Amino acid sequence: MTHARTTRRVLAAVASVGAVLITAACSSSSTPTGSAAAGGGVNWDERGPITYAQGKDTAGVWAGVLKEWNDAHPNEQVTLIELSPEADQQRADMIKRGQAKSGEFSVMSVDVVWTAEFAANGWLQELPKDKFPTDGMLASAVDAASYFGKLYAYPQSSDGALLYYRSDLLDKAGLKPPTTWDEMQAACDKVLPTQKGMSCYSGQFQKYEGLTCNVAEAVNSAGGEFITADGKPAVNSAEAVAGLTWMVDGFKSGMIPKEAITWKEEESRQAFQDGKILFLRNWPYVYNLASKTDGSSKVAGKFGVSPIPGKTGPGVSTLGGHNIGISAFAKNKGTAGDFIKWIASEAQQKTFLQKGSLAPILESMYADADLNKEFGYLSTLGESIKNAQARPKAVRYGDVTSAIQDATYAALQGQQTPTDAFNGLQTKLEDLLK
Amino acid sequence: MSQGAATTIAGNTPPVTEKRKKNLLSDGQGTLAGFLISPTMLVILFVVGIPILLSLRESVFRKFTTPDPTTGMIPEGESFVGLQNFTDIFAHPQAVDGAWGNIDRLINSFLNVTFFTIICVAIETVIGVAMALIMARAFRGKGFVRAAILVPWAIPTIVSARMWGLIFDADGVMNKILGQQILWLADNSYSQWAVIIADTWKTAPFIGLLTLAGLQTIPSDVYEAARVDGANAWQQFVRITLPMVKPALVVAVLFRTLDTMRMFDLPWGMIGQGKYYVETISMFAYIENNQLRYGTAAAYSLVLFAYIVLVAFIFIRLLGADVIGDEETRAITEQRKRQKALAKAENRKTKLAKTTITSGEFQS
Amino acid sequence: MTAATSHVTAAELAALNKPRRDWRFWLGKTGIFLGMTFIILYCIAPFYWMVVSSLRLPTMGRDTSFWPNPVSFENYPAVFDPINGFGRALVNSVIVSLSTTLVTLLFGILAAYALARLRFRFKGIVLAVIIGCSMFPGITLLIPLFKMFTGAYPWMPINWMNTYQALIIPSLSFGLPLCVWNLTAFFRQLPVELEQAAMVDGCTPGQAFRKVILPLAAPGVFTTAIITFIAVWNEFMIALTFGTQQNMYTAVVAISKFTGAYGFDTPWGTIMAAGVLVTVPLIIGVLIFQRRIVAGLTAGGVK
Q1: How far apart are CA A355 and CA A352, in angstroms?
Q2: Which domain holds residue B124?
Q3: Residue A431 contacts by C-beta under 8 Å, 6 or more apart in sequence?
Q4: Are residues B312 and B347 in the same domain?
Q5: What CA–CA distance (Å, rounded) separates C250 from C243?
Q6: Residue A151 falls within a domain, yes or no?
Q7: Which pLDDT value is given to residue C283?
Q8: Are residues B157 and B97 in the same domain?
Q9: Distance CA A304, CA A279 (A)
């Protein structure tokens, strides 16, 4: 009551602000299309110092790698720019540079799922195929670095899902690692009655990018597709819905423990290491940690890996990993080109595998006997990646993935039936991919 | 505003008269005041004024996002879309599944904000006032309690979000204590309560402190008198304590309300993004901004701004929250009010005296 | 109530005046004691959990035993592992919080003095604007500031991302109103007679301010400084938006981005240890200055 006058003044101020807006609104700006990323007219001989931007180097491999390069190329030094550990934030940082047409990041490590967006906006330099051969690289990884039939980056590292299983328990029951969902269920039915407090299976079902990976695997493994080869969404197909239904039923029947709906990679790894689940879908990084004999893992030496199971045969993993691309606005593209080729070479790929546990992009390395001895999961991983399917290649991937997560999480929480959820998703994707 | 400040001012203020305006104190004060205030106002203009104008401008534009079907390239730039960023709530609702059923995402976050604000502020006020009453009675250990009470306030919200995230983990200590397996960190009404609990923890002590300060300005002989008059504890609370702490409490509640309405760190750090049971307008606008859709981001943040202005207006208007607390402004308004009230003054005054024991002795 | 008065007898009055030490008295005492215990538990218990979690083995981050077994301090050195850049983040936090506090104090003292003491037109508007700013949703400011600082506007071709000014200037938007607000309240509490006396002695209002008011207001200024400092120190959204590279994180942002030895690791122990490390100095400061802070919070009523 006391301050009616003041309130009125505040409101009047707000109103006058509104008046200014109307004048401001008339000065619209809309520049026509124009991108600097076209393949021609690039000087691939320009050399000099460059920068390389990527997410946080948690494994600490880059200092050594860059030293090797810099020692060999004193006039073409590469400086590492470490971005946030969070993928979202890395992407936002790179996008900002792109929008400002800044070449601050000459070379960028781009998540496979952002490649389409970056290419479509003209932020990545197209790589002419004659100068940048892709022989020997995993076909799925090369495909993930291409957009509209053109190559925009080199594959840098790959990734695929593995099924971790308790070999001790399966052996005792005389079972082999399952290749289908039914086999996995059957194995659980046989093993679990003797194991108190153990659940059958888990992946990552918290609402985040990992959920997209998991549901994509379920859908692809059931023979469905999110987006068909010609770019049309197809999630309302019977196969796709069957994939989601498998996950939903898993929660309903208790095959998947109900708390798994809050699990990311680490929580599910912890549960597996604590002996709470028989089968775990996760990335290769778990292998070393679960093998630790310092007491942190209760399953060291008692587990094995296989490709993930599918509906009627081996499952289809989601393709992970990063591409390494050159900013369309970068200087010294010659050096940048040499650098990405060098990163994709076998010697460096081996370093990344050995020191950073990153899956190589060269097909031959998965068959290498020495490496397989060192990394017990390598050939299995190679198999997984060879079959792997990329997540939907969409320019508005951020919106696509949150739409997928929305639909999936709503189905997992029982807010919607799988059919309704995917019908709704179909409508949304049609809108997003227009 | 503290009760103390209010009473001193009420006591000291000479009536605003011509004579006062011309005395030594006011000579050339306008210019001096201009000098003193302009740096602050300039900063505010730069960090608040200009951004608001730009927000308004952004909210009527939209970036191009659709790629060219033949080349796959996205055109640069933005286009003027009028009020579409606002009206799309109705024209192209983005339905999500939250606590309020399958509704548009902005409406959903709007309802979340409303829900959180009402519940959190209500619980905080009750707990806070209870704490203040206990502390006011305590003879020993007051300093210790007051120190303890400042701990939640001093912990950065994002740190407390992580802390509560660990407590509310599916295998966390909260479930261990409750002996149940509640999935607080999924996306359900428990998630909402997780946020409410964490927010209440951080801010109820704050309301307690403010109320305590208000309580301590009540002279004990008022209670003595009431007791002599045979008022029981509840009557004392309702007839003395509440009216006396009301000015301090209303301001505290107003600030808490506005603060809860723009909540961001807590659900963001504890439950995560894209959780529609706990998504607030601030979070939604932030996510849109991260997707570089400045237009919708600005539009949603303006919706929140308008909502906050409305609530502040209601508070100040209906509850008489004395936010400004300035003697001069108050004197002018008071004077006007007095004149208005003069006609029915006698009637009202006697009525007031009956409802509030203290109205005759304190407060002008 | 007036009706009740007539029923009070002399005996009852005597009983009322005598200090009551009957069962009711003890019940009340116990009740208050229990209440106090409850308050302390309520405030401290979650913080206790943070401390306990920070004292576990790094591999036991999500353990739920009420006492760490075994007790381990490994998480604390891990906080300062170069990979998390926490030391630098602390320095950043200090720089940003201190600069913001100093700037707000400098401007705020002047403005607050004028608001508390001088008579001028538009005072109501100025006060309304300042209070309006403190009610503002930060996100509304953030979006255009973000565009400004990334150089997205042609009339402002700067790139201030990951600079100190980009962290400090937006912080003024809530720091300055908070500061002006508190200080105005403090200045008002000082007796106006002192200044009048000084002016009678021939001081100008400026001199009166410098020689009389400022020394008297020192405690209030100090309190305001602490409150502003803590508010900026704890700020998250601005720091998260404008400091996107590790060397420009503030402490709270760094904590929100802690990573362990491998990509997916959420090092709970380290995060909690870092939380303890940023909170304990604040708590110690709060304990030392608690009376002042309480007075300041009460005066300002903000945050």
Answers
A1: 5
A2: 63-325
A3: none
A4: no
A5: 8
A6: yes
A7: 81
A8: yes
A9: 10
pLDDT digits (tens, 9 = 90+) for B119-155: 999 999 999 999 888 888 876 777 788 778 888 988 8
Which residue range is the domain that position A365 belongs to? 50-159+320-387
ipTM confidence: 0.82
Distance CA A126, CA B77 (A): 22
Mean pLDDT of B85-93: 84
Q: Which fold has domain C76-300?
A: MetI-like fold (1.10.3720)
Q: Inter-chain contact A56–C125, Cβ cutoff 8 Å?
A: no
CA distance A384 to A316: 7
Instruction: Output b/e per residue, A368-402; b: 16+ Cβ within 10 A.
Output: beebbeebebbbbbbbbbebbbbbbbbbbbbbbbb
Tokens of C34: 């229990």
Q: How far apart are the first and last CA of chain C?
A: 39
Average pLDDT over chain A, rounded to an integer:
87
**C262 vs A7, A9, A59: nearest CB:** A59
Amino acid type, A237: S
Residues in B 21-50 with any Cβ partner in C closer than 8 A? 21, 24-26, 29-30, 32-37, 39-41, 43-44, 46-48, 50
**Single-letter residue type at A214:** N
**Is B72 within a domain?**
yes
Contact B274 A3 (CB under 8 A): no
Q: How many residues does chain C have?
A: 303
Q: How confident is the model at residue A17 (pLDDT cuts 50, 70, 90)?
A: very low
* Residue in A119, A261, A399 nearest the CB of B183: A261
Pair (B106, B188) in one structural domain: yes
Nearest CA in chain C to B175: C64
Q: What is the pLDDT of residues C68-113, one digit of tens each?
A: 888 889 899 988 888 788 999 999 999 999 999 999 999 999 999 8
User: Given its phi and psi angles, is residue C160 left (phi above 0), alpha (psi -120 to 50 degrees) or beta?
Assistant: alpha
How many angstroms separate the CA of residue C169 from the nearest CA in chain B? Answer: 7
Which of A17-31, A56-70, B332-346 has maximum average pLDDT? A56-70
Closest CA to C296 of C144, C125, C130, C181: C181
Q: How far is Cα C248 from Cα A210, in angstroms, rounded to an integer?
A: 28
Chain A residues touching C159 at Cβ < 8 A: 100, 102
A237, part of any domain: yes
Q: What is the pTM of this model?
A: 0.84
**Torsion of the alpha carbons at A59, A64, A65 and A71, rounded to the nearest 10:** 170
Strand-pairing partners, residue A372, are: none
For residues C198 and C208, the answer to whether their CB atoms sit within 8 Å is yes
**Per-residue DSSP letter, A359:** B
List the one residue out of C131, C269, C88 whose CA is nearest residue B326: C131
Closest CA to A217 of A15, A390, A421, A25: A390
Is B56–A28 a contact, with Cβ atoms under 8 angstroms apart? Answer: no
CA–CA separation, A375 and A377 (whole Å)? 5
Q: Which residues of C touch B206 (CB under 8 A)?
A: 297
- Taking only Cα atoms into account, the Rg of chain C, rounded to an integer number of angstroms, comes to 26
